[in-house]
Amino acid sequence: MEEHYADSKAPKPLNLQARATRDDWLDACDGGVTAAQGFKAVGVHAGFRADPHRLDMALVVADEPCACAATFTRNVFCAAPITVSRRHLDDVGYGIARGIVINSGNANAATGSVGLETAERTTEIVGEALGCPPGEVLVASTGVIGQHLDVSPFISAMPQAVADLSCEGGKSAASAIMTTDTVSKEAAVCFAGDDIGYPGVTFTVGGMAKGSGMIMPNMATMISVITTDAPILPDVLHKALVNAVNKSFNKVTVDSDTSTNDCCFLFASGEAAPGALPFALDSSAYARFEAALDAVCQTLARKMAADGEGATRLVTVTVAGAANEEDADRAARAIANSPLVKTAICGHDANWGRIAMAIGKSGAHFAQENAAIDIMGLPVCRDGLTVLFDEEEALKRFENHEIVIDVDLGAGDAQTTVWTCDFTHDYITINGDYRS
After folding, report:
1. Structure pTM?
2. DSSP assignment, residue 369?
3. Of 73, 221, 253, 316, which one is the catalytic site residue?
4. pLDDT of the residue at 208
5. Whole-Å CA distances, 214 to 251, 288, 309, 424
6. In CATH terms, are 26-306 and 314-432 the same topology?
7. pLDDT tens across 240-266, in order?
């Protein structure tokens, strides 16, 4: 059979990656969910897990009730903690809250009225320990679906957990929410307020997340708690969070499965500038806060993708040249969710035909003769046809921790980036043995 090749005179790489270039006013800082002023946290072993050495309950608390916003899973089979936390934020996704408690080991999902009672009772237990109304307490759970959650570990562990809350407790809290995660996930950035109307003030955004499998959020099992000491009103905070989540956590897919328990919470204490006017939506201060929040969310999202169950490689997929944002997202997700693409990456095989297959079935509108594909900066397809490339060079590039796939559909100006990981034999082992 005759092979057809595009004109392969050293085609230039697509170079579509909108790499996260951090502005010079934005600095990474140490810590995670307690990096911002006005927050304390702790992670403890409460008894949800059999292993006494494994932390299984996290508590993140603001010094005072503060603005809070959240996004939640759209999975119809949502967990009881999701329903209760929604209620406590007046079913609009924002309000005033004091803190959040998260248990691992049991999702409290598909547990009916008993599960709802347990989640509500949990907020009462935390509220009593903190001296605040139950309505100011949010709750999240992660673990096995369909098993009733015992409330007694909350009762027995809460007094000591509250006593142990500290500004250094973010790390233990991040560890306590892990399930099949292999590493805890934290991030924090800060920025100065000197030229945005808050002279002498440094603002911080920090957070933690967990997620390794059953991840393709639609608001990965994904839970994230983010804090800031910037002064922001609840409704404005919610707008910023929704925008940030749509560019970060909602662009992650490990296995195309949307969990029953996905949620992301954002608290704003205002403690960096007590008494200061809140950030206005059209202000430069708000724009900088948005950029800082994006940086934290995208860092956590990338860490989640890199820690996908059994993964050995973070995979970044950018699709450009789409007719619209929806088509860009369809094509990128089709690549990122394809078992054939993900297993090819595991096998270090630059098989671009699998990428072409994925975009072709995605429903995105484009003509194949306009499509171009690069793998790790190597042009492998132009005008819908093969470009000769050095297989040995491709093999070397597969040693990188991050595998980058760039696609240009040649149909417009829309672009998006999605993060995923490779599929390995360990993914089957982890999920085949999940309940054993």
Report:
1. 0.87
2. G
3. 221
4. 98
5. 14, 32, 9, 15
6. no
7. 999 999 999 989 887 555 556 789 999
